[in-house]
Specification:
mainly alpha, Neurolysin, domain 3, 3-stranded mixed β-sheet, 20 helices, 63% helix, globular
């Protein structure tokens, strides 16, 4: 066949693989939403078989032959064309996946699927020992995975590349060191600040049914399409894209904390908008319909959760609506006091509930522990003690129980070692994109005070969502902002917000 015909055939085959992945996503979603505890082992077998089937289809030698045929022709002459982008990414993934034995892929999926259910039970009971043997298997499998794939410096590079293509541990470490220094200084200033918000405004009884009504209003205003998605509850907030016009989110609510349910929904809806805002069924199943990287995806969720959801303009519009739903709870509360409470900064145990300033320190802690586990410098049995020791160093808090410490996140249970750095990188991307959006769309922040978010979503869609995997995360940042990713915009943004709230000076 000609390169053109071969490309058409390859797209068809990749779409079949994507349909299998979509079917697998339904099973993952059902596991979180509906699966009875006794069905977890069978679900693990289902997921393992599907993942093995996807892997076998993808690494079929015919795929390698088709890629070689296409690469030998002129179809990929324009490096930013649809065929060039798709084939470049398929080649990168093929060369990576073909190194993983099918039996290993199946076992990895089975182990992590079972571990996810055990993690939920261990978190509920706050007992790390229940989860420990499963995490030991996962860490060993991640070591094997890195060894199969190969690496130059350390195993973590191989795992990080899965989530943030092209990124290196040394680069992440350097970026985190610069960010850490600035954050420590900022947090210290806030700790000694002459002004302090009254966070008690948020820590009072909030009817959960009315919370659900309010967060759905917010999600709809953001642009989340409930005819192409769902909002359910789970132990850990998450977003699960199933395919065109089907992107579902989970969150959780607390009867005595309004902010956590709201920010959780805005975060996951921000992820969902990446998929919902540019439905292109003709590209579905190709890299041009995927996100550039996990950090870029995270930049979108953090934009909506923090830059939008914690802005004063956002609450100019939504605070009156909140007062109508919660008359007694908000009686006597002024807009500026509520806004300040939403931007309370204080060390806390739970990452997903952390403020914008301390959040990145949570990520750095996990990054350090993951590297230590993979290198063999930290035994899994010693994780709780080492977590608690480092947490005290970072936050000045004594961890009181495992559920507030090393059991709080779901991601180790699903084998996603190498994933956590994308959160902090995403925060840096988000701040840098926001600076550019304000230049390109004058007055965009003022839109929020009118409950209008369409111009921001349009800018994000055109500049980020619609680019697919045309660029790596780092290159996309340079393309959009003209600058390499840096911690500078994030620090500038935090100071601009916190200086008037806390009465501090840079």
């Amino acid at each position: 066949m000609s390169p053109n015909d071969t490309y058409t055939e390859l797209k068809k085959k990749m779409r079949e693989v994507a349909l299998l992945a979509s079917s697998q996503s339904v099973l993952y979603w059902d596991r979180e939403a509906n699966l009875p505890p006794k069905g977890s082992d069978h679900r693990a077998d289902q997921l393992a078989q599907l993942n093995r089937l996807m892997h076998d289809w993808f690494v079929d030698p015919k795929v390698g032959d088709m890629l070689s045929t296409i690469e030998a022709g002129d179809l990929l002459k324009d490096p930013e064309s649809e065929p060039a982008v798709n084939c470049r990414e398929w080649r990168r993934l093929y060369d990576r996946e073909v190194k993983l034995p099918g039996d290993f892929v199946e076992e990895f999926t089975r182990v992590t699927s079972k571990a996810a259910n055990v993690w939920a039970e261990a978190r509920k009971k706050s007992d790390f020992k229940l989860f420990q043997p499963h995490l030991e298997k996962i860490v060993e499998l991640c070591r094997q995975k890195a060894d199969f794939i190969g690496y130059t410096t350390e195993r973590y590079d191989a795992l990080l590349d899965e989530f943030e293509p092209g990124a290196k541990v040394s680069e992440v470490e350097a970026a985190f060191e610069d960010l850490r220094k600035e954050l420590v200084t900022l947090i210290a200033k806030i700790r000694e600040a002459p002004k302090k918000p009254d966070v008690g405004i948020l820590k009072r009884p909030w009817n959960v049914d009315r919370q659900r009504i309010f967060v759905e209003m917010v999600a709809i205003a953001m642009g989340y399409d409930f005819e192409a998605g769902r909002l359910d509850e789970a132990v850990h907030p998450m977003c699960t894209p199933m395919g065109p016009y089907d992107t579902r989110i989970f969150s959780r609510y607390y009867p005595e904390d309004l902010a956590e349910g709201l920010t959780g929904v805005m975060h996951e809806a921000g992820h969902a908008l990446y998929d919902q805002s540019h439905p292109r069924p003709e590209l579905w199943g190709t890299p041009l319909d995927e996100s550039a990287s996990l950090a870029i995806h995270e930049s979108q969720s953090r934009t909506w959760e923090n830059i939008v959801g914690r802005s004063r303009q956002f609450w100019v519009y939504f605070f009156p609506q909140l007062k109508r739903l919660f008359r007694e709870e908000t009686a006597g509360v002024k807009l500026d006091d509520f806004y300040a409470a939403m931007n309370w900064v204080s060390p806390s145990y739970i990452r997903v509930e952390a403020d914008e300033a301390t959040y990145n320190l949570h990520i750095m802690l996990r990054f350090e522990l993951e590297r230590a586990m993979l290198d063999g410098d930290l035994k899994v049995a010693d994780v709780p003690g080492e977590w608690n020791r480092r947490f005290k160093d970072y936050f000045g808090l004594e961890v009181d129980k495992d559920s507030n410490g090393c059991l709080q996140d779901v991601h180790w249970s699903d084998g996603s070692l190498g994933y956590f750095p994308t959160y902090a990188l995403g925060n840096m991307f988000a701040a840098q994109f926001w600076v550019q959006a304000q230049k390109d769309v004058p007055g965009v922040e003022d839109d929020f005070a009118r409950g209008e978010f369409g111009r921001l979503l349009k800018w994000l869609s055109e500049n980020i969502h619609d680019q697919g995997m045309k660029y790596t995360g780092a290159k996309l940042c340079e393309k959009v902002t003209g600058q390499p990713v840096s911690h500078r915009s994030l620090i500038d943004y935090l100071y601009a917000k916190y200086e008037p709230i806390y009465g501090i000076r840079r």
